[in-house]
Amino acid sequence: MTRKNKKQLHSPPATDTIPLNIEIIDQIIPDIGYTVYRECTPDWKIKDKQKIYDGWDMTYAVKGVACYSINGVPHELKAGDLLCLPPGNKRAAKTSEDNLMHCFAVNFKLKNHDINQPAVIPLPLISHIGIREDIMQIFHDLIFTWINHQPLYKVKVHGLFMLLLHRFMETAIYATNSTVNDTRIRKVLRHISSHFSDKITVKNMASLCNLNTVYFGTLFKQETGMSMLQYLTKTRIKYAENLLRSGGFRVHEAAERCGFSDINHFYRHFKHICGFAPSDCIPKKTGV
């Protein structure tokens, strides 16, 4: 997409116009109007070429191709692409008759907790997310929840929608994927989150998965991007930081509670992971 084409959109979806304050997403309140999994027929079309659409259109293509026209500018949406179209734009679309598009779609409106801030989603107009099983499952859950209208369904719909945004934004903006797909590694992560202060070794975690240590180590790094010991250390440090910020613990107490027997070892890893000394996050006493 050229810079000229980017400026034709009334909201700022282009990568180089993403607000530096990504935390703006924390303030949005979604109002879902429609969500569906669509297997396009050869005659599927969006005919609103002259109509300004007043909601957001988020479409995730998982198969085939569709040709969109947005404010008169052509765009191709292919499998693995995410369209995030803000309100205030003219759109039209049709699928390729030779390669019918299958997609998940959700139409919604947004408002912001802070009335002085815009209600925006800082995503490009089109991002290539890839075919993600975890994202498709969230969409299936979203659609199922939406159409069944069980008690408190809107609360769950909002939660699932925000989880989708998390997946989309970490991929499109940060080029990361925090999702762990392997059930054996997820089992280990749950164990670490509950028993991080205990003695945990690669050997006993590999045994928990019924794997040899070499394959377990390779699989763990493949799923998390770090070794198991690096993950364990980071988990312990982050829990220790949280204890220190609560104001109820001294440095050596937080270290011991989080599985560190060597205080120098704790200081070194804390400074490396957090970027500051443990004592820096202890609340300062105020008053006379």
Structure description:
With 288 residues, this protein is an alpha+beta fold. It has 2 domains: 3-172, Jelly Rolls (Sandwich), CATH 2.60.120.280; 183-281, Orthogonal Bundle (Arc Repressor Mutant, subunit A). 38% of the residues lie in helices and 22% in strands. It contains 9 helices and 10 strands. A hairpin with a 2-residue loop joins strand 5 (65-70) and strand 6. Helix 2 (133-148) packs antiparallel against helix 3. The longest helix has 20 residues, at 153-172. The N and C termini lie far apart (61 Å).
Name a few traits of the molecule.
single chain, 288 residues, alpha+beta, Jelly Rolls, Arc Repressor Mutant, subunit A, 5-stranded antiparallel sheet, 38% helix, disordered N terminus
What is the compact description of this entry?
The chain has 288 residues and is α+β, with helices and mostly antiparallel strands.
